[in-house]
Specification:
It is an enzyme of class 4 (lyase). This protein is α/β, with parallel strands linked by helices. It has three domains: about 1-200, Rossmann fold (3-Layer(aba) Sandwich), CATH 3.40.50; about 210-370, Rossmann fold; about 380-500 and about 510-575, Thiamin diphosphate (ThDP)-binding fold, Pyr/PP domains (Rossmann fold). The protein has 23 helices and 20 strands. Helix 1 (about 25-35) runs parallel beside helix 7 (about 155-170) and helix 12 runs parallel beside helix 14 (about 335-345). It is globular. About 50% of the residues are buried. The structure holds adenosine-5'-diphosphate (ADP). Adenosine-5'-diphosphate (ADP) binds near residues 233, 234 and 292.
């Protein structure tokens, strides 16, 4: 079935008088017909006119300085809107620059489409050497949910429809859509073009769980002594907070949010055990995973983090996720909203769900929460000079508590690990961070998307190293006058900035170079914002930080706050120190060549 769309432009062919359209217009019309409202991209051959046409046709085009950030913005837009975020890239290197973001979107289960121009197939396939030639379709394939190429102008409608359907139905993910330059330039009679576009009906259909699967899950929970619900970013994406809240509150089961699920139910909710995470994980005997995978972020569900005999129930739209790490005693396939409302519905028949023994468990967790909260409060009250992470974050926390609708973007090592614990979230989908891969470089792209898609203020809490990966996008943020405040926790290094060069002979080549983890602790990042017309602040105390952040959020415009920290603050690899490989050889061991 096809739905006719209005055409922005029809070109009568001079000889015949037949109205024609072309591939560029058809792509734009197909996207518009499917409610794609924004394209994030970077122009160049052969897609510059596509961006122009999109803009004049009413699709918002946001142009970046590097494709990785455009891709990250599209991925975040997908997470925030449940529609695929679209990233537009040029052929060859432009495509490759965008690809890591598409791979990251796939890993995070965010719906995204990378739409890329590409070179002449006949030249690429014979490796005759075209401008920016690359077999993009096959290069993309290992990193995405699906990769499609449109081979002729009349297939643009089906190609766009297929990309959208694949990106958002089932487990969301990244789709690569290749459109060779020749196809963008091909013409087609307008009447045929109209018929080649269609609008998707119910692009992400609800998936209801089987009744016996719900029964099994409720039975399993009713046998628990120490149940726990783990909420993941899949639940945040699914917008299932109402159903989840009903289940959580009806059963009284404590819940633990994964980092991007913070705020799905407020962190201040009495049943949140975020502040007693280790105890909750190590003692839980039946665990209900809701849109969270038992991957490395959850220690694969294994001992010693978890109790060796913990049992798992899992809600996921992708059944292949079950049993990926631990046996799933009650798998629940379906979309989270449908599953959790079926679970609420099933509760009336299960009077045993919410047994009295859970009160003891809840009390045990509450006591640990109170103890950990007290430790956190005293840490936040410390006031060392120069500032360190905790007292800087205490200032940010105070300001954000007064501005709960601010979107928080967070990346870095210590800046990520500590901010995640210190900054509470009260609203769903208001925290975006490094996600499943723990990848650096998402900061500015995610910030742009959060501002563009929601219109609300954004605060990016960045390590100085992490900021560097996408820092040039400050220009993008300033160009579009977006309400983004970037707080750079600047300790002058990757992890920290006080490592000294260990080369014994400082006269040797590189002997006087900075150590590998060292950046510039004197850097004045706020000047970058000023260079592009944004506001810059340099702060050295928590009260200066509080004042600057309050003013920057209220200004509703772009700003950088360079927050000078002690270069000795921070720990190597943040909370992931145990994953590091430390050289077995001491610094004084002879080099391999000499020893051999
Ligand atoms: P976290 O990192 O927060 O633990 P993950 O990204 O590991 O979360 O897990 C998200 C899970 O949610 C994925 O397994 C994905 O298949 C699932 N998911 C995503 N959207 C939905 C949905 N609408 N309904 C059910 N499951 C979903």
């Amino acid at each position: 079935m096809s739905t006719r769309s209005a055409y922005a432009r029809q070109e009568p062919a001079e000889s015949s008088g037949t109205a024609l359209t072309d591939g560029i217009h058809l792509v734009v019309d197909a996207l518009k017909a499917n409610e794609i409202k924004t394209i994030y991209g970077l122009v160049g051959i052969p897609i510059t006119d596509l961006a122009r046409t999109a803009q004049t046709s009413g699709i918002r085009y946001i142009g970046f300085r590097h494709e990785a950030s455009a891709g990250n913005a599209a991925a975040a837009a997908g997470f925030l809107t449940q529609r695929p975020g679209v990233c537009l890239t040029t052929s060859g290197p432009g495509f490759l620059n965008g690809l890591p973001a598409l791979a990251n979107a796939t890993t995070n289960c965010f719906p995204m489409i990378q739409l890329s121009g590409s070179s002449d197939r006949s030249v690429v396939d014979l490796q005759r050497g075209d401008y920016q030639d690359l077999d993009q379709l096959n290069a993309a394939r290992p990193f995405v949910k699906a990769a499609y190429r449109i081979g002729q102008v009349s297939d643009i409608g089906v190609g766009v429809a297929r990309a959208i359907r694949t990106a958002i139905s089932g487990r969301p993910g990244g789709v690569y859509l290749d459109i060779p330059a020749a196809v963008l330039g091909q013409t087609l009679e307008t009447s045929a073009a109209l018929d080649s576009i269609w609008r998707l009906v119910d692009p992400a259909p609800r998936q209801l769980p089987a009744t016996d699967a719900v029964e099994r899950a409720l039975d399993a929970l009713s046998q628990a002594q120490r149940p726990l619900i783990v909420l993941g970013k899949g639940a945040a994406y699914a917008r299932a907070e109402d159903e989840i809240r009903r289940f959580v509150e009806a059963t009284g089961i404590p819940f633990l949010p994964m980092s991007m699920a913070k705020g799905l139910l407020p962190d201040s909710h009495p049943q949140s055990v975020a502040a007693a995470r280790s105890l909750a994980i190590s003692r839980a005997d039946v665990v209900l995973l809701v849109g969270a995978r038992l991957n490395w972020l959850l220690g694969h569900g294994e001992s010693p983090q978890w109790s060796a005999d913990a049992k798992f129930i899992q809600v996921d739209i992708a059944p292949s996720e079950f049993d990926s790490n631990r046996p799933i005693m009650a798998p629940l396939t379906g979309d989270i909203g449908s599953v959790m409302s079926a679970m609420v519905g099933g509760l009336t028949a299960h009077t045993t769900v919410a047994p009295a023994s859970w009160t003891t468990w809840s009390a045990e967790l509450a006591a640990r929460k109170a103890r950990n909260d007290a430790t956190m409060r005293s840490r936040l009250a410390e006031d060392p000079r120069p500032m360190r992470f905790y007292n800087a974050l205490a200032a940010i926390r105070t300001v954000l508590q007064r501005n709960q609708d601010v979107y928080v973007v967070n990346e870095g090592a210590n800046a990520l690990d500590l901010a995640r614990n210190v900054i509470d979230m009260e609203l769903p989908r208001h925290r975006l961070d490094t996600g499943t891969w723990g990848v650096m470089g998402i900061g500015m792209g995610y910030s742009v998307a959060a501002a563009v898609e929601t219109g609300r203020p954004v605060v990016a809490i960045e390590g100085d190293s992490a900021f560097g990966f996408s820092g040039m996008e400050i220009e993008t943020i300033c160009r579009y006058r977006l309400p983004v405040t970037v707080v750079i926790l600047n300790n002058g290094g990757v992890y920290r900035g006080d490592e000294v060069t260990t080369a014994e002979n400082t006269a040797a080549p590189g002997g006087s170079d900075p150590a590998p983890t060292v950046l510039n602790s004197q850097a004045r990042h706020e000047l970058i914002a000023e260079a592009f017309g944004g506001k810059g602040y340099h702060v050295t105390t928590p009260s200066e930080l509080t004042a600057a952040l309050t003013e920057a959020i209220a200004s509703n415009g772009p700003a950088i706050i360079d927050c000078e920290l002690d270069p000795a603050a921070g720990q190597e690899s943040g909370h992931l120190a145990s994953r590091n490989v430390t050289s077995a050889l001491t610094a004084s061991s002879p080099p391999v060549s000499a020893a051999g």
